[in-house]
Amino acid sequence: MEPDGDALRRSLLVLPNAVHMVDAQIQQLRSTTSYLYWRERRHRMTAESTHRRVLWYGVLRSLALVGVSVLQVLGVRYLFRSK
């Protein structure tokens, strides 16, 4: 069955609109992908920065604990030193 000329013209008029819709959807997909990429990158940088700060906080806290322990040992030795 041969499509008549009127139906063919209608389908050709719809085709540019369909192409435009597909193009708009592709642009939206690119925009969303770019947004998600930058959001993930920003969150990763925040997580790495937080990890570094927590690591240094732990190191400083451990050093402070060792320092206080050494001072306590020296203080107790001083108290029990015979004069």
Question: What is the fold's blueprint, element by element?
Answer:
Blueprint: H1 5-80
Write a brief structural summary.
The protein has 83 residues and is mainly α. It has one helix at residues 5-80.
Structure description:
This protein is an all-alpha fold and 83 residues long. The protein has one helix at residues 5-80. The chain is rod-shaped, with a radius of gyration of 36 Å. The longest helix has 76 residues, at 5-80.
Tally of strands: 0
Query: C-alpha Rg, in Å?
Result: 36 Å
Q: Main sheet, how many strands, which sense, barrel?
A: none
Helix content: over 70%
- Which series of helices and strands comes N to C? H
Oligomer: single chain
Overall mean pLDDT score? 91
Overall morphology: rod-shaped
Measured between the Cα atoms of the first and last residue, the distance is 120 Å
Strand content: under 5%
Can you count the helices? Answer: 1
Structural class: mainly alpha
- Which segments are poorly predicted (pLDDT under 50) over 5 or more consecutive residues? none
Summary tags:
mainly alpha, single chain, 83 residues, 1 helix
